[in-house]
Design brief:
Elements: H1 4-14, E1 18-26, E2 32-40, E3 42-44, H2 45-53, H3 58-70, E4 74-79, E5 84-90, H4 92-100, H5 105-108, E6 115-122, H6 127-141, E7 147-150, H7 156-169, E8 170-177, E9 181-182, E10 188-189, H8 192-203, E11 209-213, H9 222-227, E12 229-233, H10 238-241, H11 244-255
Helix pairs in contact: 1-3
Length: 270
């Protein structure tokens, strides 16, 4: 998949640069005539690629250059009968992206099969848990530009269709595993719906982040915790440990070469 981050870096590297092309012409008396042409917002192919190779794979750079060319953001230039590519220059459309700092929303959708900033939060819809959900949503995720997706559903059919679509289309899946039913052996289990939603996220290839309340029986959370990331918490320390959610989400985006969301905006890409 083409990386939005690489495409933006290519545009940033080209903007404001000047490329000089030197061409030799043979005259009729066997003398050479040298002419120069200067192209704004442009670099030779070597000058564009070589700095990028220190950060990205050649194949990924090629894919980004092709994507930008097909999208009309840059064009190649060259000389000769074969018109061999000598360099690349930004089009007016490419300059607009530099000035805006991002691609138009409709174009950004082409980079992703899922909303890269959407976070599906699976949780119990009870009064006791709402303060936890509000803290995660309003104090952590939304201020950093993430879009929070609700997992509310009424009936099995809505779970199968609406909830599954929401989980599929969100890059991130967070499950708030809180106590619900006490066990005779001690400890608690959480809502059966949450375990089903975890299973759905796993089926879609997500990497669940589990927020596990102290007291949840290890049999009903331990196996998940061995495989997926988790953050244990209590009702008294959640404000101290939940900020780690942001670090984990942003690390995932950076590792996948996805630009971090703009703070306080919560982009709606899909």
């Amino acid at each position: 998949m083409v990386s939005e981050k690489i495409c933006l870096d290519i545009i940033k590297d080209l903007y404001g640069k000047m490329s000089t092309l030197t061409t030799k012409h043979m005259l009729s008396d066997d003398k050479e005539e040298i002419s120069e042409s200067r192209i704004s917002n442009a670099l030779s192919a070597a000058d564009l690629y070589r700095p990028l190779l220190a950060r990205y794979d050649l194949q990924d750079i090629d894919s980004a250059v092709r994507w930008l060319t097909l999208g009309g953001y840059l064009r190649s230039f060259g000389f000769g009968i074969t018109n061999q590519v000598m360099g690349y220059e930004l089009t007016h459309k490419g300059c607009e992206v530099f000035e805006r700092g991002q691609f138009p929303d409709e174009e950004r959708k082409l980079f992703y099969r899922e909303n890269p900033y959407a976070v599906f939060i699976a949780h119990q819809f009870n009064k006791d848990d709402q303060s936890l959900v509000r803290y995660i949503r309003d104090d952590l995720l939304k201020p950093r530009g993430f879009h929070v997706v609700s997992g509310r559903a009424v009936g099995l059919e809505q779970f199968r269709v609406s909830i599954l679509n929401k989980i599929r289309d969100s890059r991130f899946f967070i499950c708030l595993l809180t106590k619900r039913v006490p066990l005779e052996s001690g400890g608690y289990i959480s809502s059966v719906w949450l375990y089903q939603e975890i299973g759905a996220a796993m089926a879609f290839g997500k990497k669940p982040l589990l927020l596990v309340e102290q007291g949840i029986d290890s049999h009903f959370a331990g196996e998940f915790q061995k495989i997926y990331e988790h953050i244990p918490f209590t009702r008294s320390n959640h404000t101290a440990v939940f900020p780690d959610i942001i670090r984990r989400l942003e690390a995932d985006l950076e590792g996948s070469m996805i630009p971090l969301p703009e703070p306080n905006q919560g982009p709606q890409l899909l």
